[in-house]
Design a protein that fits this description.
Radius of gyration: 12 Å
CATH architecture: 3-Layer(aba) Sandwich
Distance between the termini: 19 Å
Number of domains: 1
Strand content: 15-25%
Largest sheet: 5 strands, parallel
Structural class: alpha/beta
Number of helices: 5
Order of helices and strands: EHEHEHEHHE
CATH class: Alpha Beta
Length: 111
C-alpha cells in the first residue's frame, strides 16, 4: 500500500471529483488549473508523465493512445455515464490506497 499515486484529471472530468479526492488528502491537478484546456490528448499524457501523475479520463481516445504504445504514467478510465461521481471518487481512492505508482506505469485501470 503506497498512497503515493498522484492524479491528473482531463478536461472532461468533473471538478467535483478533484474536490472529493483532495478532501481525502490525494494530490490532484486538473486540466483547467494547469492551463491545458484545448491541449490534445498526447499533450495531456505528456504533462501527466512529466509530473508522474496517473491521468483520469472518460475519453476513449486515451485508450487508443495506450494501444498505440504511447508512454504514460498510468490511465484510470471510466466509460462516460457508467458511474456516479461518488463511485468514481471511491474507486480512485482505492487505486491511490492500494496500487504503487510504478505498478500503474503504462497500465490502464478500468473503473
Amino acid at each position: 500500500m503506497s498512497g503515493q499515486i498522484k492524479f491528473h484529471l482531463d478536461e472532461n472530468a468533473s471538478n467535483a471529483i478533484a474536490e472529493g479526492l483532495r478532501r481525502r488528502g490525494i494530490d490532484v491537478t486538473t486540466t483547467p488549473e494547469e492551463a491545458l484546456l484545448g491541449a490534445d490528448d498526447e499533450e495531456q499524457l505528456a504533462f501527466a508523465l512529466a509530473q508522474q501523475r496517473v491521468i483520469f479520463t472518460q475519453d476513449d481516445d486515451f485508450l487508443r493512445l495506450h494501444q498505440a504504445g504511447v508512454v504514460h504514467a498510468g490511465i484510470a478510465y471510466c466509460h462516460q455515464g457508467s458511474r456516479s461521481i461518488g463511485e468514481m471518487i471511491k474507486t480512485l481512492t482505492l487505486i491511490w490506497e492500494w496500487i504503487d505508482p510504478e505498478d500503474m506505469r503504462g497500465q490502464v485501470e478500468f473503473i
